[in-house]
């Protein structure tokens, strides 16, 4: 039995029952694929269900306010995905009359849709014979065929896409694409796969050559930057606080946060006190400054490690544009700030 037949047979017996697999609706498939970029299925599924409930059609999503979209996305991370999702929905709804492009080439024109996502939508919704290539596909094919190409190279995707296309049954590309991704997610996992129960254990070259842990080859390492965030949680005599919107490009764009003092290293009370005096955060007289915790909350992003501290700043009088805790909770925040609010601000 050849690779594709065995793979698909395994898939039909082992596939997970996921809500976006029970449809060929391109809106639902597009939503799921954007959400599952750099997100585990278990984490992404509740968000998919929440979005399809709040926005049953692409028109509903297009007409929503961006803050509403970001609030619902809160906790998924990589917030540029949500902003691009919203822009693409507006384009499909208002420029294409709600009809998604029906082929790989035109799907690539949607904001936030890259080669992998376009291939997934084109094959799952329209059965177009175009292969998906993601981390799972790299891993399965490199191990089975003992391909030592460095997947960090730009040329690697083209090589693996050509191999996947050759293997793909052209009459049913959707099932093949879903099967190879599912196989990589459930069976041919990155670390310590259970090769003894694998359907390919008689023919996998990496297993025969004892190279499972060496493949796929990936040389490029991401440089991680350390940043130090000090958030000022202002509290006035009515227990109102103030927040600001992150309008600059970069992490958490268009999300909200408390007034921020970013430092070059971890700093203590004296630094915060002096910085507050020289800043324009509030005109009110500062009564007290107190740290909520004596250690940083380390928040790890793909390319940055954020060392976050929250400082309680009590001031006299009333702050301008102050909001209470109930209103505060209605804004979209980065998940680390959202969790702090839920824990500390009753």
Can you describe this structure in just a few lines?
This protein is of the alpha+beta class and 346 residues long. It has helices spanning 3-14, 26-35, 41-54, 58-63, 66-73, 80-94, 104-107, 115-126, 135-145, 154-167, 173-186, 205-208, 269-278, 325-328, 335-344, and strands spanning 225-235, 244-245, 256-257, 260-263, 286-291, 297-300, 304-315. 43% of the residues lie in helices and 12% in strands.
N/C terminus separation: 62 Å
Strand content: 5-15%
What's the CATH C level of the largest domain? Mainly Alpha
Q: Can you count the beta strands? A: 7
Name of the CATH superfamily of the largest domain: Hypothetical protein, domain 2
Query: What order do the helices and strands follow?
Result: HHHHHHHHHHHHEEEEHEEEHH
Overall CATH architecture of the largest domain: Orthogonal Bundle
Supply the number of structural domains: 2
Assign the structural class, choosing from mainly alpha, mainly beta, alpha/beta, alpha+beta, or little secondary structure: alpha+beta
Biggest beta sheet attributes: 5 strands, mixed
Helix content: 40-55%
Question: What is the rounded Rg?
Answer: 24 Å
Here the CATH topology of the largest domain equals Endonuclease III, domain 1
Q: Which geometry do the CA atoms define?
A: elongated
Determine the number of helices (DSSP H or I, runs of at least 4 residues).
15
Low-confidence stretches: none
What value does the average pLDDT take? 95
């Amino acid at each position: 039995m050849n690779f594709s037949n065995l793979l698909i047979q395994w898939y039909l017996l082992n596939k997970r029952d996921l809500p976006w697999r029970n449809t060929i609706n391109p809106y639902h498939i597009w939503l799921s694929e954007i959400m599952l970029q750099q997100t585990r299925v278990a984490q992404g599924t509740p968000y998919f269900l929440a979005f399809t409930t709040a926005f049953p059609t692409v028109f509903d999503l297009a007409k929503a306010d961006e803050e509403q979209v970001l609030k619902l996305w809160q906790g998924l991370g990589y917030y540029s995905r949500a902003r691009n999702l919203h822009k693409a929905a507006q384009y499909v709804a208002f420029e294409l009359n709600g009809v998604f492009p029906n082929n790989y080439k035109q799907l690539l024109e949607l904001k936030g849709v890259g080669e992998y996502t376009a291939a997934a939508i084109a094959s799952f919704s329209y059965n177009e014979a175009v292969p998906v290539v993601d981390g799972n596909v790299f891993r399965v094919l490199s191990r089975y065929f003992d391909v030592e190409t460095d997947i960090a190279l730009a040329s690697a995707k083209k090589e693996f896409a050509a191999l996947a296309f050759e293997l793909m049954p052209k009459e049913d590309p959707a099932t093949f694409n879903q099967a190879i991704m599912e196989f990589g997610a459930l069976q041919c996992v990155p670390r310590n796969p259970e090769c003894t129960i694998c359907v390919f254990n008689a023919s996998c070259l990496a297993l025969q050559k004892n190279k499972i842990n060496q493949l796929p080859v990936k040389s490029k390492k991401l440089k991680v930057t350390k940043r130090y965030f000090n958030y000022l949680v202002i509290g006035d005599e009515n227990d109102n606080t103030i927040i600001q919107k992150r309008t600059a490009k970069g992490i958490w764009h268009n999300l909200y946060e408390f007034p921020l003092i970013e430092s070059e290293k971890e700093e203590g009370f004296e630094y915060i006190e002096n910085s507050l005096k020289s800043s324009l955060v509030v005109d009110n007289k500062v009564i007290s400054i107190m740290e909520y915790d004596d250690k940083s909350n380390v928040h790890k992003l793909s390319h940055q490690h954020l060392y976050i501290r929250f400082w309680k700043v009590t001031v006299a009088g009333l702050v301008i544009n102050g909001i209470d805790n109930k209103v505060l909770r209605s804004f979209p925040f980065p998940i680390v700030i959202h969790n702090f609010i839920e824990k500390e601000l009753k």
